[in-house]
Amino acid sequence: MKKKHKIISFLLLFLSFMLVACTDEKTDEKATVDEGNETAGEKAPVTQIDPFDHSEKYTITGMTFRFGDPPPLKSPGLDMINERFNVDYKPEIIPQGDYVEKSSAIVASGAMPDLIGFQAGDTRFYQWAEDGAFLPLDDYLSHYATLGNIPDYIYNSFKVDGKIYGIPRYSNPYPVTPIIRQDWLDKLGMEVPTNYEELEKIAIAFTKEDPDGNGKDDTYGVAIGENINPSFNMGTYWDFNSWYHQNDDGDFIPGIISDGRKDLVQFFANLYKEGAMTKDFAVLDWASTNNEFYSGKAGIFVAGVSGMSQEYFDGLLAINPDAKLVAIPPFEAPDKSKGFTMGSGNSGILALNANLAKDEGKIYRALELVDFGKTYFPAEEKNPQNADFDFYLGKEGTGYNMENGLPVQVPTFSSEGLSPSTYFLDNREQVPEDAKITYSDSYTLPELKEMTSSLQEMFETTDLYVDPSHGVQSPTNQEKGTDLFQFLINEQSKMIAGQRPLSDWDALVKEYLAKGGEAIIKETNEGIKSKGYTEREWK
């Protein structure tokens, strides 16, 4: 890892002194990496220019990942962008599965584009930012309606040495949390649980008291699969992935070794003994775990306000037409806290090449492209009367059509490049914190709309914990974190299945610390402190 880090550092240093040309194999057109006179990562002296002056035309290159096939390199949508922003825009969109390998090769060849995207959690972003590969953005973001209003606690995840180097790809802040079969509760005369003791009794009742009323012994409580997933944390206190608990020295520790996690492992062990959770959980993949729940076998699972599968829900209703799913509100923890952990607020990162520092006009133009691509349009403004929205989707009648008052993109909007939206490197709208968004509007199935409404209502009346570890990099975690996590999961799975006693918990934590966990905690807390966190923060 250290050798690779040094190689990247050398290549980036080399780029700051040389003018490098590269050829795009698909277009056979040449793109040039600018030679900067400033030190990499430092901005040229600020000049009094209009950030939105389009009198000069700029060539702007970009690269990011895409789930699905990329759009064509020449198209009406791309022409629309070039004309509107007075640019020669050259985005390279790479299939997600190949992105890390191909983007690393492009950068190593000396051809880093003006804009470069990263998937969430990609440690290359932080490594390259530390090496001076990216432009600090603090002095520019306030000029833009969208970029300038992203909350500081989200930008904090993209700070290196106190400066912002990344722009987040939006992800809604609400986590995936437990849900329960309300129709089964009604059948058994039980209420939505308010603590783990009640949840355990319900899971056992779902297993032994025929909640679907078919006279068969074919139901159970909790659907769970490999890697103890879902975790069924009923609040941040029990969240294995959150840095909430603190040790005797006052340092934050990972939830997976906390007292809350120990209590949760005991809860699962109780269920396993009673047959009230998926018996073969340790070898069940995610698709199969979903099937356990949506085939009507289990009564407790997880869901979110967005990204839900209507097809899965239809399958459940075909088996149990009266199925009704509702959110389980967070439980009060032993320390009196009550609330779930807020999502990171990003599903990807976008950075600007440090070599842009010598041309402030180009910086503003590149950020204008980014800002427009992330624009949030309220539901009532998604129509051809809104000129910006109409442009974004490629004009009514070409890139989209209005159907029952809603914009529906034509099937070939991306494959034929009809819509400008498909070419913005970050085309996920950045929903403002004060936006009045109703997530259930994304669905047509009444039962699914009702469930997501119950989740949104719960989140809007619940505190959400801001995890201070977001964006913090630990070299030891990069080197050993994956193996250490799997070690803990494997040992905790043994405890659940009765193959290792829970009384070994303290010994397990000591093993983790000795294998590298102590260094991870030390390095993570140094990063947390460097970002200015002093107290736990709830929103």
From TrEMBL:
This is Carbohydrate ABC transporter substrate-binding protein, CUT1 family. PROSITE patterns: PROKAR_LIPOPROTEIN (PS51257). Residues 1-21 form the signal peptide. It comes from Psychrobacillus psychrotolerans. InterPro entries: Bact_solute-bd_prot1, SBP. It comes from the Bacteria. The lineage of its organism: Bacteria, Bacillati, Bacillota, Bacilli, Bacillales. Keywords: Cell membrane, Lipoprotein, Membrane, Palmitate, Signal.
